[in-house]
Design goal:
single chain, 147 residues, 58% helix
Length: 147
């Protein structure tokens, strides 16, 4: 229930409870809180049992945790009717990325080897130059019907 509370937070809660309620009233407050939690759990379990009874015998295995989409998908994928494990095992993302990286690096090496000769730009763009402004006459014709 309290899986995400660490020891420091638990100590802080206890110290705050002692300060707020006092050491003489704290046991009574803890008993009241535990009694309330127990009643809520009993009410929740009886409601779940009533829902199961109303749904009928075909839903006797029904778990309310299955209503969580993550849990539902996990259960459905465990059945593996579609052969998803084979697909998942056949697709190795790290291997694919390594192949792509190697291909890109070998291509870069070829381009840099080809551009070593003077005067060849071999697809390289000089990023230090400002782009040339297009001439005024290079604009496409204005089409009144298109707008």
């Amino acid at each position: 229930m309290f899986n995400d509370i660490g020891p420091l937070e638990l100590v802080t809660i206890v110290v705050l409870a002692v300060l707020v309620f006092g050491p003489d009233k704290l046991p009574k407050v803890v008993q009241d809180v535990m009694r309330t939690i127990r009643k809520i759990r009993e009410f929740s379990e009886s409601a779940k049992q009533d829902i199961r009874n109303e749904l009928g015998p075909e839903f006797k295995d029904f778990e309310f945790e299955d209503l969580n989409p993550k849990t539902f998908l996990r259960k459905q994928l465990e059945n593996d009717d579609l052969g998803l494990k084979e697909i998942r095992n056949g697709f190795d993302l790290k291997k694919e990325m390594a192949e792509i990286t190697d291909a890109v690096h070998s291509r870069d090496a070829e381009i840099s080897a080809g551009s070593a000769s003077p005067g060849s730009s071999a697809g390289r763009v000089d990023m230090t130059k400002k782009p040339e402004a297009p001439a005024r006459d290079d604009r496409p014709p204005f089409d009144v019907d298109a707008t």
